[in-house]
Design brief:
single chain; alpha/beta; Alkaline Phosphatase, subunit A; 15 helices; 24 strands
């Protein structure tokens, strides 16, 4: 497994030349305003090259971006499930501030609909704002100047009547359904032997299923992610031909590695099943945790792990199968990320465009008997975050101070010198995060205007309404992770000695002071007086 030292050595190669070259051309560009490209992946944990999440991770394009920017070692989702995470960081407002805690549509929320999304704020500052794919979970066309393709989670398996899990996925895991219960190579065309044109691969979306053609690796339809990467390439070409000085904000949301984990065969071939390394998991690791004290056994992460385990002869075989599909999906999205980077690097915008790459949250791969997002542990909350800011970010470096997705919006306001209030009116809310620009210019710095920790919340259930004090919370410093469930149970992990969060120290009296200090951080960050 690559170590942090290996990563630093790799990322540092060519640092001086890259940083100086970008600084010079950035200063000479005729466009005084900086363009922005925001790349958001879905369900992408730290299984990317250089982040030490998995030793077999194959993401050369992510690594390439990191060599030209700053990689954040400790970046965290504020709410590790799609809808609330995205509505939070794309408005710059914590879920507990807006009370948009889970799956409600953000544009109906009294606070968020009266606050500017990052797209609207850029547009109000004279930017052409364009995007494609999954950005907000609940799409609202009016916040964009131009938009390409809506989110499409396909390819899906279609049995002639409805979408289903791939027939090659064993039961009972496949009973979960066509999204979370399905994985496999596109070359494994479902129902091919039945010669029924209605059956097989289809795109996602509502209404009548649209056929996804697959005859071979070289004769097939583009996946939704490939289609969005091509759209970005065409959009950059179009902008380059316009010969004006108008800056742009471009967002692209890639679906993978969100389930169903269906990608081209070549990506599965990168990870032969018999050679796939399963996640590092401690036996009975969940025994000293308290997730099952507040959620029942049918909670998705617990249920998915149980069903996957029951579907294979042993746990190792189960985890190998799922891990292969996840790694393949990560490799597939990396190729699409590479196309976006190439589009910028081969354009006149290379030295005047900030690129930010991140994910809405991570994903547990079986740790603590859990297979899903929406937990307060490291695997669900940690996200890749890489920022290339020509002339500003020191190329190839790693920032270790904790930051969160909530900090992206104020950072871009700072880097692009945006003007005006981000509130539409008095019913809106100010930005909750802080600019992490100091870590771009001095990655080893500990000084910024923000906190020394990153905050995460998961929703406790409909019976809690929108009351932040009734939810489950976690806070992460460089050394500690502290979890506070709404029933009072606690977990405390020392990441200096326990990076896998195997040993819950919360019941050890020696750490009572640490728990008090960590809980106080949650209180300060949320305004909740008594958890």
């Amino acid at each position: 497994m690559k170590t942090r030292r290996d990563f630093l050595k790799c990322m540092a190669t060519g640092t001086v030349g890259i940083a100086f070259g970008h600084s010079l051309s950035f200063a000479q560009t005729k466009n005084p305003k900086t363009n922005v490209v925001l790349i958001v992946c879905d369900d992408l944990n730290d299984y990317v090259t250089g982040f030490d999440g998995h030793p077999q991770a194959n993401t050369p394009n992510v690594a390439r971006l990191a060599k030209s920017g700053v990689a954040f070692k400790r970046a965290y989702s504020n709410n590790p499930v799609c809808a609330p995470s995205r509505s939070s960081f794309l408005t710059g407002i914590y879920p507990h501030t807006s009370k948009n805690l889970f799956w409600n549509k953000w544009f109906n929320n009294p606070v968020l609909k009266n606050s500017k999304t990052i797209m609207e704020h850029f547009r109000d500052n004279g930017y052409f704002v364009t995007g494609t794919g999954k950005l907000m979970h609940h799409h609202l066309a009016s916040v964009w100047s131009k938009f390409g393709h809506k989110a499409d989670y396909g390819p899906f398996v279609f049995d002639g009547n409805v979408k289903v899990a791939h027939p090659s996925v064993p039961k009972p895991f496949s009973d979960i359904g066509p999204v979370d219960g399905s994985f496999g190579s596109l070359a494994d065309v479902p129902f091919k032997s039945e010669n029924d044109k209605k059956k097989g691969w289809v795109y996602g979306g509502w209404g009548k299923p649209k056929k996804f053609k697959y005859n071979s690796e070289d004769d097939r339809s583009p996946t939704p992610d490939e289609r969005n990467a091509t759209w970005v390439q065409n959009q950059i070409d179009e902008l380059a031909k316009q010969k004006n000085d108008n800056p742009f904000f471009l967002g692209v949301g890639f679906i993978r590695p969100h389930t169903p984990l269906h990608v081209p065969k070549k990506f599965f071939d990168m990870f032969p099943l018999d050679k796939v390394k399963i996640p590092v998991i401690k036996k009975d690791d969940a025994k000293d945790c308290h997730y099952t004290d507040v959620y029942n056994a049918d909670q998705k992460g617990l249920k998915y792990f149980r069903l996957l385990k029951e579907s294979y002869p042993d746990l190792d075989s189960a985890l190998k199968a799922f891990t292969q599909a996840y790694l393949a999906s990560v490799a597939a999205v990396d190729e699409c990320i590479g196309k976006v980077i190439d589009a910028i690097d081969n354009s006149p915008f290379k030295d005047n465009t900030i690129i930010i790459l991140t994910s809405d949250h991570g994903w547990n791969m079986g740790e603590k008997d859990y297979l899903f997002k929406n937990s307060l542990w490291e695997e669900s909350t940690r996200v890749p975050l890489i920022v290339r800011a020509p002339g500003i970010a020191i190329a190839g470096q790693v920032a270790e101070h904790p930051v969160a997705l909530i900090d992206i919006y104020p950072t871009l306001v700072d880097l692009c010198n945006l003007k005006g209030d981000t509130k539409k009116n008095a019913k809106g809310a100010k930005l909750d995060g802080f600019s992490f620009k100091p870590f771009l210019t001095e990655p080893e710095s500990e000084k910024w205007d923000g906190p020394d920790s990153a905050l995460t919340m998961i929703y406790a259930g409909n019976e809690t309404g929108n009351d932040p004090s009734k939810q489950h919370w976690s806070v992460r410093t460089k050394k500690w992770r502290y979890i506070h469930y709404n029933n009072g149970n606690e977990e405390l992990y020392d990441h200096d000695s326990d990076p896998y969060e195997w040993d819950n120290l919360a019941d050890d009296d020696r750490y009572e002071k640490v728990k008090i200090e960590m809980k106080a951080r949650i209180n300060r960050l949320t305004g909740i007086k008594n958890l």
